[in-house]
Structures are given as structure tokens and as C-alpha cells.
Amino acid sequence: MFKILTVLSLVVGAMSAKCGSGSCSSAGKTSVRFPVLDKLLTLVMGLSLAVLALTGFYAVLLGHELTGYLLVCHTGTGGAFAGSLALLAVLRAEAESCCCKCLFWTLLIGGMGVVLTAVVMMQPWFGTHGQEVLVELHRYSSLLAVVGGLGCCGSLLRAKSS
Amino acid sequence: MRASIVLLTIGAAGLLAGPRGFADEPWDGGRTVPVHRIPLNDCEGQDIVPSMPSAKPLSTSKTCGMCHSYEKISGGWHFNSSSGKVPAGRSGEPWVWVDGLTGTQLPLSYRGWSGTWNPSAVGLTSWDFTKMFGRHMPGGDTGEPADVFADPHARWTVSGKLEINCLACHSGSHAQDHSEWVRQIGRENFAWAATAASGFGEVGGMASRLKPTWTINDGPNPDDKDYAVPPYVKYLMAQFDSKNRSVFQIQRPPDRNCLNCHSVSPSHAEKGDVDQDVHSRAGFQCVDCHRNSINHMIVRGYETEVADRKDASVGDFSCRGCHMEEPAKGGGRLGAPHPKHGGLPPVHFEKLSCTACHSGQMPGAMPTDVRASRANRLGIHGRALWFTDAPFIQEPVFVKGSDGKIAPHRVMWPAFWARRSAGKVTPIRPDELEKTARGILDAGQQVGSVLKAFAQLGDESGETVFVASGKLLRANTDGDVDLDKTFALPAGLPSGFALLKDGKLSPLAPNFDPAAAQLEPAVESRLLEVLQAIAPDDAAMGAPSLARGKKIYTRNEDGSLSVADSTEDHANAVWGRMANGKFKPVVSDFAVRAVVETAGTAQTFTEEQLAQMLQAMAAADKSAEFVYVGRGYVFALGKDGKLATSSNPAAEPVFWPLAHNVRSAVASLGAKACTECHSAEAAMLFGRVVAGGPLKTKTVAVKTMVETSKLDGSYHKLFGLTFTMRPLFKMMLWGCGGLMAAVLGVGVLGGLQRFARYLGRKE
Known about the structure:
- By secondary structure, chain A is mainly α.
- Chain A has helices spanning 2-19, 35-61, 68-92, 98-121, 128-161.
- Chain B is 28% helix and 19% strand.
- By secondary structure, chain B is an alpha+beta fold.
């Protein structure tokens, strides 16, 4: 089920990237307050999301466990993703067009789910079953984040090229 | 008529058929253990009349076997190792052939477990095996060979078979005496051992001293009432009723019976400091989980046992079976609490066994030295000390098991002498080497025997001790020497024997001037007294002598003292023997060096002794290459005559998983912090396993636990390092998550506000 949803999300994300507005970033609208910082954060967020998706979905899609160096990479990149997305959220809260806003909010909701489930898993609050539920939530949130992220980044690329 | 014949035939068949084993019939539901007031039967199935002087010992196959199928029981886990018919299952503790003189600790098992040698492959017959290990066997197995004449050296017809001792496990009597069982095994009184251990009677005599032609039906030996006394039993009449029946205090095996053979405790620990297993503390008995039916295939309790035995019912009594509530397996039994495992990522359950965190000693920088009942001969009480420090066993060592999970194991490094051919080593029986080893490997005993001889002088002048290289050595009860670490020796004390009294050392013989023309009478008298103590039984070994200055004082056979000139100048007194005009010290310099080097350590011999032993073996048999396997390497003599070491699979350690003692949840590994395992110094991953063994050498194999667990050490160091940043990382994630939630909250509120405005405009 999750594998199918993963593939679907990637397809939807790609489509949204293609169809989305070209004004989704600092390259588009002028209302972004710190365009350089915004560009940098978008880049970090996009790259980290790509690494997270690769390391996370590689394990899931190929039936491997997310352990070893992949896990270290995934966890480390997760920090960069969380930081960049949180700052982007502050910077762009009021700066997006409607379509892009939708994608961004999708990314933000998914990202928040990913970050919170990750950090809650590190707390001794939930037992084995709770941990398993959190892992599932983390995975499904990540799908949302990927759809939003692909859309936003795709729009950015389109805007640049135009 | 025909019917009568049929009935008679059936009746006769019923009479001729052996005992029915009616206790094996389906359980009636009664939950009490029936009172076993029964007559004792001997090996021929005859009721024993305890008042008769010629009464034979109890036979369990003919007594217990009257109601319980002895045949079925014989197939049980405790009795089937040598049959070769039962799947070996997960590795267990091997039997260890320990020989102090030759420094041998050889792991043995009939089950073919990894790292063990099959006893028959190293020349041990069923008889040898039973004699050696019957002390901690519950009888049966090798103790009941099908053919008692198969081994010409065996003495089964004298000793009788070592039947399964049902009472060793099932007796609830406090008179059940494991030590008595061990004594009877040592005396080869196999058929009498169960009777003696049960307390039904008192067993005397020694089968080991009898001629091989003696049998149990021959009765007492009228010609010898002191030495070669055949085994006999005097039953304690108070235990029998008028019908010669006795009450067997049968119950489900109490823990104390299991622990006779299954105790493991840290070496040198105080009894009061060793905690019980949490299950025992909660009131469980061993057999609550380690169950069996009449077939005595006891549940071992490991996770993959279900697959190994192809029996789903045994799965209920693994850790998971009771604690994880898996209904398909009927788990969640015995009121076992379901573990919370708060904050523990589920991947741990795929990678680790339950025991990894919950069982055995807590891992340290190095594993803990432990002693185990069967290997170290524990729990045998009497005048002699039975236990041995060898073999050197340690726990916990984390090893990846056959199920792919990392589990704590006990480890022992094999040590033995062997022949090597084409890289393959074949162990040599230690008893074959005894003659060669005498004079080379028995340095401690050489000093000990002289100290024992000097002890004849009496305690008035003090205890004789040996002083060398700043160490004070005292004789021990095993005929060896122990280092007295508490005694502070004055500096510059010469090596040799001395008297210790009231904390002060004095010479064994009074000081005198060797250059003087004549000795004072008191000095001469004392010298003769001391020399008499070290006079050998065999005069051919030489006359007892003392070398001092340029003189040698010898005690002649007639008790006189003769003085001869010495070519050497001995500044200090050297006790020795004169043979063929040559003076030889009672303890050679070679032995002194060996004793000084090994005293106070766990090791018993040095590289110098090893080289000399290899030379002696090579001189005795030039057809083979001899090696010593120990401390994780194979030691051999190189072409230059020096020791050369190499690796070999035979030198690799033998591991077996441990499960007890189970620690409480709060005392489990990782309960305090993730960094107990995930740090660059975590004992569980980076603890060092140093090869133990009797050889004192600097060439010692060392393994880290990431090696034994087949893990990537570099990765785990890196992963461990990430945990130093973990608190900061969590704070950052909380901050980011909070910020995103706040933005989302503001966004939602803004959206609501717009929606409200939209509604307002619409109105």
C-alpha cells in the first residue's frame, strides 16, 4: 500500500511541479522580504528533501531497512530539512500566489508531521506499538511533504528558466 | 475352551510384558503430586529388603520405571546427547576437559556444536566420558552404553551402569546430596551413586580398587576389608516401613536440584552479592518455563526452538512467548508483564535477542570472568576443594547467532596440545602427556612438594615458605604454591626457602661460617634435621644436601653429615641433592623462573616451559609436528627453535548463548540511556574480549564485540558520535516543529479571518 502511495505521490508531485505557478519563489514575486536568504533556504530545503526521499523511499521501495550509513545520512539531512523549512515558513507565510501557496502549505503540513513524528519517536513516551504508529505517520507525512516539495521546487525551476 | 485359551494367552502375555508405565496414561486432572510410598527395586527388578546385609543398591529403571516409561525418559534432552538421533538445536555449554598440569581446556560435545570436539574424536570412550563428567550428569546417556564390552578398558561390569538418577532432579528431600553423587562417581560406584546421593542408605567401598573380574553378584571381599573393599550399601532402616517401602519425596524439580549443574556466578564474587534471576525473585521455578512431558524433552526456551523442534507448543515459553502476547502461539502466559519499551525503535527487536539487554552480567570494557557448575566443578562440598578457575569463561560477549540476532554469549578459548598435519590440528589427550610434562610444566608442584617436605619439621620454628624475586610463596592444599600478596618482603632478600613466623622471615638453617673448620653441634643438628626432611624416598635420586659458600654438606644414609668442596661459590644457602658426585638444587632455576612468573596470575605456565615441552615432545616422536593451541593462537617451534605463532580455526573461541540471570527492566541494557549502546565507547560494541588460558604470554588474541557481532565498527563509532549531539538535535527539531505549527496556526487563523470577511461581504 505504502509503496503504491509513494509512487503516486511522486507522480502527483511531478505533475504539480510541471503545472504549478511560475511565481512560487523569490524569483517570482517581489513580496519576499529576503530574496537571497529565501533562495538559499529553498535550495537547502529542496536538496535535503531529495536526499531524505532517496534514502527513505529507497529503503521502503526495495524492501531494505533504513539502517546503517543510510540512516545516519537520513537523520542528519532531516535536521537541515527541518531548519530550512521552518525558516521558509516564516519568510513565505504571506508571499505566495494561490496555487503555490497550496503546494507550500502541503509541504509545510507534511514537513511538520515528519519533524514532529521524528522527534516524538526519540522520546520515551511511546511503547513498541506507539513507535510503529509513529513510523507509519512519519512515512505518510513524508509523502505529503514530497508532493508539496516537488511542486514548489519544480515551480522554482520553471520560474528560473522563464 | 477356545475362549479360555485366548484369555489365558492374553493373561500370560500381560504378565510377561514388562511394567506398563501406567503413570504415562493421560492425566486425570488431579494437581497434587501423589505420595510415592513404594518398595525399592534392585537392578534385577527384585524388591530390596533393606535389612539384609547383601542388599543391592536401588535401580531407578526398575523402581521408577515400574510406573514411568524409562525408555521414553531416556530420549530426553539430558540423556540423548550421545545418541546422535536428536537435532542439536542452538549451541549450549560444552563439556570442558580440564587438565591443570598440561594447561588443557578442551570443549567437548556429542551434539556437534560449533567450536567443540566430539569426545570420540579425541579418544574418549563412553566410559572415559562418564568417569570424567558423570559428576555433573544426571545419569543415563554415556552412562548406559548398549555394549559394556565395546571398550576393553572400561569397567562397566564392576561399576555397574550409571542409570538415570531420577532423584537428582525430582527429589524434594533435603537429604538429596549432589556431593555424595560426585564422590561415588569418583569411586566408580556407578550403580550405587543414586542410592548414596538420595540418602536412602550409606554406601561404602570403592569399585575403582577392585579387580576387573568382580561383579555386583560377587558380594564382599573376605580377604580385604581395608583397601579393595567392594561397594556395599547399608540402608537407613528408619526410612522403611514394615513392608520395606519408603517414601520418595518426589516433587516438580526444585531449583536447587537444577542449580547443582546449572549455576553460573562471577568468579571471586561473594555469595551475598550475587542477585537472583528476576523470575526466581518473582516466585518462579526453573521448571515453570523449562517444561517437559514424559519424554523429558525439556523446553530450552530460545526463540527459534519452535523451528528446530518442529513443535509450536514450545514457543510459549520463550521470552516472547510469555511477554509479547502473541495469541497465535498461545503466548502471554504466566502473568508475564507486557514490556513497554518506551522510546525504543522497533528495529531493535529485529536485530537483538531479548537477552541482549536483559540477561547476564552487564557488559563492561571487558567481559566478566564467571564460573559455571559443570565446567568449573562447582557445588561439590567436602574436605577437598573441587572447583577450578580453569576453564576461563567470560560473559557477556555479544555474538550474532544463527538466527541473525545479536545475543549475549559466554566464551571460552580452547587450550590444548595437538599434532599438526597439513594445517589441521588434532588434540592430544592430556593424560598421554603427563609423563613428558612432569619436570617441565609442574614448576609450582616442584616447589610445593619441597615446601610440603619441609612442613615435616613442624610449626614450632615457623611455616616454610619460598621467597624469590620479591615474591613470597606458600604451599596450598593442591600441592602447588600460592602467592601471598599481603606480605611485604624486605628489599634485597635472597631467593630460597625460609621460615615465616610472626610475620618475620628467618633462614631455614641457622647462619654459619662455611669457612669454619667445624660446625657447631647445634648447627649441625639442625642441618641434619632439615636435610632429613628433603631426603627422597628413592635413594637413587641422591642424598639431601646443602650448598653454602664453597662447601656442600650432605646427609649420609647413616645420619651423619659429610662436607665436600664445591666448585661453585654459593653466597646463599641452596638446598639440593648429591647424585653421582654432582649437586642439583631441589628446585631448578628453570622452575623458579616459571613459578615467579606465574605466581599470583591466572596462568600456570610460561613460554619458556612451552618451548621446552614442545622440544621434549618432538624428541619423543619425530614423526609429527606438535603444537600448543591457546590464547587464540597456535604455538609451534620454528626452525630456529623459537616459538612461532599462527592463527587457526581450532584456536578460535567457543561461544554459547546465555539466558540467565535475567535482570529487571530498570537494570536492562539501555534503560538508563541510549548511549549505553550508542556511543564510541559502548561496552556492548567496543568491549574487548581477551583470550584467556593457562599460558602466560604476550601473544594474546583480542576481539572487539563488533567483530564477534559481525558489525561495522566504523559505522557504530560514527552512529555513536551522533548521540552526543542528540539532545541538541531534539531541541532543534522541537523548535522547528513548533515554528511550523505556529506558522500553520497563523495561516489557519488568517484563512478563517478571510473566510469570515468573505461571508460578511456576501451578506
